[in-house]
UniProtKB/TrEMBL annotation:
Coiled-coil region list: none
Residue intervals of the Protein kinase domain: 107-403
Domain of life: Bacteria
Record protein name field: Protein kinase domain-containing protein
Region (Disordered): 379-403
GO molecular function: ATP binding; protein kinase activity
Lineage of the species this protein comes from: Bacteria, Pseudomonadati, Planctomycetota, Planctomycetia, Pirellulales
InterPro entries: Kinase-like_dom_sf, Prot_kinase_dom
Amino acid sequence: MNQRKNDDEILNEFESYRRSPRTSLHEFIRRCDPVASSDLQLKLLVRDLRLRLMAGQFPTAFNYEKHFPHFAKDIDKVVVSTVISIANGSMPVEECFGDLPRQIHGYDVLHNVGRDWVSVHYDAIQSSLQRKVRLRVLLFPTEDTLSRASLVAKLEHPNCESIVDVFQTDSAFVIASQLETGSSIAEIMVERLDSITSRQIVQWIRGAAEALLEMHRRDIAHLSVSPSKILSRFNGEAVLINPLFEQPLERVDGVLSDDLCQQLPFPYRSIRKATDSSIDHVREDTIALGLVLFQLLTKLPLENFYLNPPLPEESMRLKKLIADQLNYSSSIDPTLKALCLRSTLGVINDFAPCSLLELRNELHDWERRFDVLQCRKSEANDSHSPKGSRRKSVTRGFPWFSG
């Protein structure tokens, strides 16, 4: 008499079974002996979903509801919780290759340094060149993601992160980037907010806009523009880092649930509507950059805004916050205030919007006017100094004033 298999044995057997090209969860459960209980079926469903997601496949809730109607009311929660579990808990290098440090594909992987919604980040040394790099191991490695990463790797732009390699090793899909030096705008806002000048703000936002324009020309959206994704190099120029390339949640769930919206990267959960059938990512990148400009001009980090529980009409709260802060502030440069309003509320409400190209161009014009004005002020100050007076006296033919 065969010994009954426990749930863990059946789950492991299913993982082996799933490696076959012609497999389905429904077929496996149908062939189970003994017949799988409802509890085990749900465990198998979660395991199947997790395996598919981590292989870059995105089944919808409907795919499961068809064969498991008795789980219909639970499917959405299972999908959401599984995606969040992968994004928050997976450690792909350690799980695939073992404890760090560890060499993979010509890189000495040193340690885990953080994560975003679609990848886990590691510091590493590229063995052949002995240079430090940042590895991003994808949690949802779709063909589209890898294709976009490869396109970004071909970019040669001073304000874009430099991707040096895109590769697969075993089951890990990895993007290797040149390690940028400098501080993120988010760090600067925490450490020395009062020292940020209007000239520096404009330089940062203009540089990030130029990076986004280059990405958009190649039909690539960043999808995660925020103060933490814009670094200020030591020369003051901005570099845009860590694009998401795509939002896997859009592929998993056609209508984003409240739970999923809570997990989306700042600031997207406040500017998109759950009923949108198609999302304009260029528009979203523009609004997101406008919101960074808003934070810098008002010195109001929006992370504080999100500490409060979101209301059903959270986008209305954000619009009111922007309007109140800008309309009643007398200390913000009028030109920059108008640009900020047009690139946020203007784009959101489609009223006198400012395109990304217009934003870049007008910021560039502001920089030039500001620099010319500063140069004239400097010259005027020099002319009133003792040395300036002596220089003028010589040119006018009064050499005895020259000393």
